[in-house]
Structure formats: C-alpha cells, structure tokens
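Record 1 of the preview.
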Amino acid sequence: MRARAAKATLAIVLAGGLAGGLAGCSTAPPAAIVNGQEISVQQLNDQMRAWSSDKPYVAEFDYQMQQQAQQQASQTGSNVPPNSVEGAGTGSGVYGMYWASLQLSAMITATAVHQYLARHGQSPSARQVAAAWASEDAANPSLWRQLPAWARTQAAVRDAEHALVDRSLTNAGGDESFYKAHKQYFWSQVCLLTSDVTVPGPRGTVDMRASRSQAGKLVEQMTSAPATAGGSRFCDSQEQFLERGTAYDNAVGALPVGRAVAVRRSYGYQAVKVLSRRVIPYSAEVADDIEVVALHGGAEAPPTGDNKIIAILKAAKIAVNPTYGIWDTSVPSPYAPQVLSANQAIH
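->
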C-alpha cells in the first residue's frame, strides 16, 4: 500500500491529466461487470469513501501526483494540474476522475482474481490473510490503521489472493529482510489476562493515581505469582486487538509473552499480561504476501509488470459503465488493462 500512489503515477501517462470530479450516485446501473458479476455503484462509493477518509493515504497519493505533474512540466514545459483524490467540485463525496478510475480498476482486478481462484478451487488460508494484514500494518501503520475495519479486512484478503495467483518471487532477499525488520508485526492471535481497576474519587470521579497504584500491584502479582492472579482471559485477532485503541497497542503490542503492564483506560487502569502470542513464522507463503504488499504496493495498486494478473484480466469479460470511463485491454506492457477515465464531472 505504501507504493500504491507511486505505482499509480506510472499509469497516469495513459489516462492523461483529466479535470473534473466524480460524485456518488445511488440509482445508477452497475459501475462494472466482471464475467457476469456486477460491481455496484454503491460498492464503488463505499470503496472510495473508505480510502478518501484515510488522511495519510490521501496525503501520500496527492504528493505523488504533484511530483508527477512537476516532472511532466519540467520535461514538456506544459503545466497540467496534478490529479488528486478530491475532485474539482463542491460537496462531499466528489472525487478526482483519475483516482476514481484507479479505484474501479482495483475492484475489477480483485473480482477477476477471486473468480479465477474460485474456478481452480483455491483460496488463501487464514494464515496467509493474517500475514497480508501484518505486512500492510508493518509497511505503513499510520495509513493502515486509519482505514475502516472492513476495508482493512478486504484489502488483506485481496493481497492474499493476489499472492496466491502469482507465486513467482522477484526479490526473495528483500522479502526476508522486510520480515526480519518488522517481525513484531507478524502474529495472528494474542491471548491476554486482564484485570480492571477503578478506585472511586470524590463526587463520582475516578481516583486515577490510586487506580494506577492498585493496578501496579496486580501487574506484580501477575508476573511473580501467576497462579494466584485472577482476571479475565481472552484472545484477540489482529483486528480485534487494534480496535482496543492506540494507547493499548503502544503499551501491550510489543510486550513479551509472560510480561504484564498497567494500561490507562477511561474508567481507571487495567492490568494486562500477555499469556501467548501466535507468531506467523517466515515461509514461502509469507514471502509471497510481503512481495505483493511491501514491494509492489498491495492488491489495490495497478499490477504493473505482473504477467499472471494481466493475463487474467485480458481473458475476462469486463464491461465498464461509460459514466466512469472505458475498459482498455490494449494498454501496452508492462501495464495491465484498466479503466481509462471519462473526461467529465459526474454528480
């Protein structure tokens, strides 16, 4: 996902610098049809809303577009306004035409890849999806964690499916180096022992100092005398753990197994001990996920140079609503077939 905007700049020479904006409509025909399966306008709008609400992603994409426009101006002498996530229009949900075409292209690609795997009786394992999730988180935590939970889950599945189709590694050394540098992210489940502490203060408040002191004693008990420590035991997936908030992640995320810590909460403090963490070991499958995510921008990025994905797209029967552009299969290698933007504003 980090390289997503950078890879997108390569395809801009095909779409051109298009002005205008794209706004969601709820009563339109499908945005696209892939081998008979519809991608609705609502699905496209949900996708664009999720990614456009991620400020780090928007900043990265827009910066890459500005760099591309400046490079083009220095080479050709023509000043073309840079493309951006936000379109030239008013109101909420107005998106840049070029960016919208990339989002629809990514959805078409993901649908075609999913169908291809289904025809061959294949699907990624839970560990492969977890490794893709971890790869995304490791590559750019601030970007990844500001997406809605459903968008993270969807992106991880798409990454894992992309990796399952294309198993030919081009940078095995880079994959392993990435894993070693970000090993703390590669786990699929963490099991915790927790105990809440709320010491009442005056006039219905919480005495945070006393709560922290009492939680500290529980932490010591959890560590030195675990057999006598009470509390609640539960296990979280990556997504469930992330939903507990940044402060929780900062305190517990990298805590070694067997260690405990006191975490400040709205109701006081919570003593937390890490009972176990299911590590995702490095393997060829994990390397495939890293290759797709960290080195090639994830499944949301245009599959430039990916011959297997390009072949799947060229073999698929794809129709795009003219409102959003045209589906072009004659795009020269190494680019994949894609939606070429409609040069108009849509509301």
